[in-house]
Amino acid sequence: MPFPRGKKPSSCIPKQHTKGPLENQEEAFHVKRSPTSPQGAPKKRSAFIDITNALTLCLSDHDDDAVAIRIANKIQSSNHTKKEKTTKKTHKSSTVTVKNEANLKKLGSLTSEGQPEKVKLGKSPVQEQKASPPEVPATAQPHQVPEEFDIDKEHIGDCFMTAEYAKEIFDYLKGREEKFVLQDYMHNQPDLNKDMRGILIDWMVEVQENFELNHETLYLAVKLTDHYLSCSVALRESLQLIGSTSMLIASKFEERCPPCIDDFLYICDDAYKREEMITMEVNILQTLKFDINIPVPYRFLRRYAKCVRANMETLTLARYVCELSLMELELVPERASLLASACLLLALTMKGLGGWTPILEFHTGYTLSDLGPLVRKLHSIVACPSDDKLKAVRSKYSHNVFFEVAKIPAVDIQKLEEALK
What we know:
This protein is mainly alpha-helical and about 425 residues long.
């Protein structure tokens, strides 16, 4: 377990804070350590019931032998069944051979009566239409990336990178953002406020770090929490249950070896029962209509950083800014791709690596004027944190594993305005 067994955390925020996963190599595979349950070995996840796969056999009228084989499998021993299968297959093959010989004799008799030796079967108009499909107009062809903007050409032929479809994949994700646009929902929550949400997200950051989960898991869990709270009224007593259940769902969606339900019950100090978490899981999935593939800014950030060949330190600085934005309620309505673009631009400015280039504008679809207002908001968050009590993100990125990017001072506002011109 990521927390010490001697003393459980008594509040939403764990007291112990361990180091996060190593992320020096972006493309390397990470072997996740699956945390054990409080009782010892991981238990089987009870949120899913056992599903028995029923195999339906679709047999034609001429497969009586196959039906006989199926019946023999149930009433005879395995050795005898193998003999029956061999016998039936031999009988079937011999029957097919006899039919083929009869057809050849019939065809030979037709040829001897004056028919041409090579019979050419004509095609119907429908078959001819299927054989020669109409030409696709030039406008329907996939969009060609200009040579100077092609960032995937070096990975052509690599089946793991899917370079041929990378541009289309991120265009599709950007199109899906329109379906998941949120507004400020806190006025519909009489028992909650933005400070409570900030404390919850700060705790979820520590959970992600202690469990060594992927960053995509954290971003997706925050999205699930916001979407559920925008549709359902919640009490403050159930807020931690919603956050931990969202982490459970996101872990099942993103992780190779997700933590079991007992792990999430343990980090909540056993404040909730297993049945309550399972019920909350069902409620969240039903409220979101099981559509949980929500675009997150972390994926766009990795893609856009590749356009300028940013090193790991610059990318980590942009991640730090992006993770700080998770705790700000006013940034919930922002689209993931726009937020990722603004975080990258602010990181490039803080590192003195230039501004918004044409290749970034091509792949993101945003101009410098589109990013200006959001970049200024992010700059104010980095320079003047809204709540000094929420230190999980800053403590996380102050470690040398993350290049201590949290200690980098914010860029001067005048220099930022020059970069936005």
